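Issue: copy button drops trailing tokens. Both records pasted manually instead:
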Amino acid sequence: MSLTHRTRQLATSAPAPATFVHAVSPSNFYLRFTRHHLQIALGLFWLLDGALQFQPYMLGTGLANQVIAPTASGQPHWVSAPVLWVARLIAAHPVAWDVPFALIQLLIGLGLLFPRTTRLALAVSVPWGLGVWFFGEGLSGMASGHASLLTGAPGSVLVYVLLAIAAWPSRDPRQVAPARWLTIAWAVIWVGGAIFQALPAQNTGPDLVSALAGPVPASGWVTSHGTPLVVGLVIVEALIGLAALHRRTRVAGVAVGFVLALAIWVIGQDFGLLFSGQATDPNTAPLLALMAVAILGGNRPRVAASDRRSWAWQEAFGSTSPAR
């Protein structure tokens, strides 16, 4: 046997390298994204949040008076009263409160990066996130009815909490996909966003313009074409949520949601105002994009019984069939 022939034989028999995207057919694939990947992604987000808390603006009264207190506006008393109480408490001693806030978030982020501390970090992040969602974000305005996916509803820390629960270690987190119920959470968020967008004070052109964080070059056009734009946005958001509930439409719906979430982050949320010196987090849209990746990572295609042995071999070794 010639050296060239032997080299070709070894090349064709060698297992293919593992990849994040696995092809099943030209029109059917899934994204390999495990709970371990989700834990790392959440850890990086928490580290960013902790770093943002050390901005000079946050070490003064800006966090209390310009970030937290405004979330009480228009809210029912059972939301506004606790939020304003927390704002006054922090404003009295901003550094004494902000530094521990930042350190807690940094520790959560670091804990999520190391397997031995992942469970503890996830367990701490859930109550911490819920507390920030209520006292720091005022439930993202949802209790008042003035909430929109464009402005950050349902709240970035609430999505942190959902993803943390979905990333909870089960058996080997490096092999197990995120929790399947994320598709239901995804549907509730997007269908809920469509409902809120259709409510008064959010369903006209001027409402759309006022909801956008950054400059709107075509604000006049948006204002004059507000009704069809709102109707289209409501329909698209509802379809994105509902599509995730059916297996055949899940990939397409979640993929469109991923793209729309990034578009909202750029156009509607101005990159979370990360470069303003006043941001506490990158806003909700990037977390929705991460949720989309987590759902796609758990969306493994159905495999016929006759192909299960070949599929298992491909999962384990990367080749299409076991050696004869």
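Record 2 (pasted manually too):
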Amino acid sequence: MQVSVIIPVYNAEQWLQRSISSVSSHDRVRQIILIDDGSTDQSLAIMRRAAEQDARILILQHPDKGNHGRSASRNLAIQHVTSEWVAFLDADDYYLENRFELPDVDADGYYGIIQSNYTDASLQDSMSDHTGITDKIKPDELYTYLTEQGSAYFSLISLTIKKEVILSLGGFDESLSVGEDTDLIWRLAHQYRLSPMNISAPIAIRTVHSQNSYSQKNNNRYLFYRKWCHQKEYPLSTKAKKRIVDAYRYYAPWYRKVSLYVKKIFSDSSQR
């Protein structure tokens, strides 16, 4: 198996070299695609220096050299992939030595678990220490498991997937700024066979810092749930529908305002 690794980059000068080095150390990696998403720091310079030292590195920019987000950047990179298999990494995260120790099982994709590294102890409540599915879920049961269970989730940076599979689904939804990874994973799980890797050991490290903490991402999270409330292409169980609707209501700004208003009314009335 040969893999192309896609890394979208936006103002990641502090972390980028570590990320690139963690990928280049793997023999299975045939290609490393770095997409500069309109960085204003030294990220592009770091990318160019890395490309001088490793012929596997391809640097891409959007036609206008602007900032278009992770989904557009990943979709651009997918068009340039030369390997049968694709993996993803964020510019502030890094792979471990066992990243591509894949099981001897026929599948369209493989996923594992990752571990969080906190740059500030105050952020430890923003994300879980480990992210991934530790239950042994059969590929044909994974879609239902993911959509029904609120805590059922695996990270995109733990996924190794066939290029043709992603292309068949149209890649990432560029209308989503949050939840675009979960959206793709759910669609993949419905259409294709995704098999777990070693679920007892992490295969990558996610760096949790003030710019990517969970609380920073909540503002647009409702858009992901709104999409899944209204989509018709992928069937959902009654349990999954309820969970998704509840999550949409929780995150939707208008719903939160109404809920706070109602709570205030009841609070005021109870004090009279």
